[in-house]
Design goal:
Elements: H1 18-26, E1 43-44, H2 53-68, H3 77-92, H4 110-128, H5 133-144, H6 155-158, H7 166-173, H8 175-186, H9 191-199, H10 220-234, H11 246-255, H12 263-272, E2 281-284, E3 289-296, E4 304-307, E5 310-313, E6 322-325
Antiparallel strand pairs: 1-3, 2-3, 2-6, 3-4, 4-5
Helix pairs in contact: 2-3, 2-4, 3-4, 3-5, 4-5, 4-10, 4-12, 5-9, 8-9, 9-10, 10-11
Length: 326
């Protein structure tokens, strides 16, 4: 830290002790910026929603207007771009960016709410992967429109409560190529955004659709959206099944690492996701029951618990782990 004359007051890496605070006060410096090592653990006791209820509602309604528009998608891109820019700007300057499913949920057509959620979740995963703002915007826009092809599928099929027939399932699978074709025809999108629509159901092992693309031949943005898409689908109530608990959804995605999903993307997803929310009751492998008090930023899957034996920090007790969420 230097003063207005260029003199060094405090060198980088020095512990900010009481005498230094007195020195700063003498120079009428009332506040300072402190750079914290990202590898340092922070205990998190209060979770912040990724976006405000207002922003999420506006995004969802904008998606609805865009998907229902008779004039095509292009005229709605400026408004959607505004929402994505706002989310990227907000989240990039957040100290802790975590997907926390006590986040705001509200009643809406699944397709629109799902599209908004996937856009937000994809941006978070992208931040954990170290993407720059321009790439995060491109990723977010493509993620918002990843399911645009479903606007050409009969709603009775999309909302069917029972199992789909083979013919119905094949019809649903067409939405990837359909969405890509429409976006390519109607917009001047960055091609990476269009690839998300095309590739978000491709698998890392080549067993996905529409073309059976595998590995790094699938664009990174598409690999990110593939994880965000499945996670939101699993943790949202559907007409044919209730949502599953967060920790179970995380476990299922981790099981697909290296086969269904890119392993590096799954690692970033795990850093961004809170499997056991604050206030959740859990059971440990030693039979002890506890309640999540705080989260550890270094590993959100190993929180700080309150138990009958006092406080237990799972980050410091590797022999213990959660076996059930209550």
């Amino acid at each position: 830290m230097i003063d207005e004359y260029g003199r060094v007051l405090i060198s980088a890496g020095v512990l900010l002790r009481e005498e230094f605070i007195v020195l700063l006060a003498k120079h009428e410096i009332t506040s300072v910026w402190i750079k914290v090592d990202s590898s340092y653990n922070h205990e998190i006791s209060v979770m912040q929603n990724l976006v405000s209820a207002s922003t999420r509602l506006k995004m969802t309604y904008s998606m609805q207007n865009a998907f229902h528009s008779q004039d095509g998608i292009a005229s709605h891109l400026p408004q959607l771009s505004e929402h994505v820019h706002q989310v990227v700007e907000d989240l990039m300057h957040r100290e802790h960016v975590l997907i926390y499913l006590n986040d705001v949920r509200f009643k809406s057509d699944y397709l629109f709410m799902h599209s908004a959620n996937v856009g937000i979740f994809a941006i978070v995963i992208g931040i954990k992967l170290g993407l720059e703002a321009e790439d995060l915007f491109c990723l977010g826009m493509g993620a918002l429109l990843h399911d645009y092809g479903k606007t050409r599928i009969n709603k009775a099929i999309l909302d069917k409560q029972g199992a789909l027939t083979w013919e119905e399932f094949n019809k649903v699978k067409e939405h990837s190529l359909t969405g890509y074709t429409i976006l390519k025809t109607e917009t001047k999108f960055d091609h990476r955004m269009m690839l998300i629509a095309l590739q978000h159901h491709e698998r890392h092992d080549g067993r996905g659709y529409p073309w059976g693309t595998s590995g790094e031949d699938i664009h990174l943005f598409s690999r990110i959206v593939a994880v965000a898409d499945v996670y939101d689908a699993l943790t949202t109530d559907r007409v044919y099944r209730p949502r599953i608990p967060t920790h179970e959804a995380v476990r299922m995605i981790c099981q697909g690492s290296g086969t269904q999903f890119d392993s590096a993307v799954v690692q970033a997803f795990c850093k961004a996701t809170v499997p056991y929310e604050i206030g959740t009751g859990v059971k440990l492998n030693n039979g002890l029951y506890g309640t999540v008090l705080r989260l550890n930023s270094m590993d959100t899957a190993r929180p700080i618990l309150w138990t009958a034996q006092g406080t237990v920090n799972l980050l410091n007790t590797p022999e213990l782990h959660v076996v059930a969420s209550l």
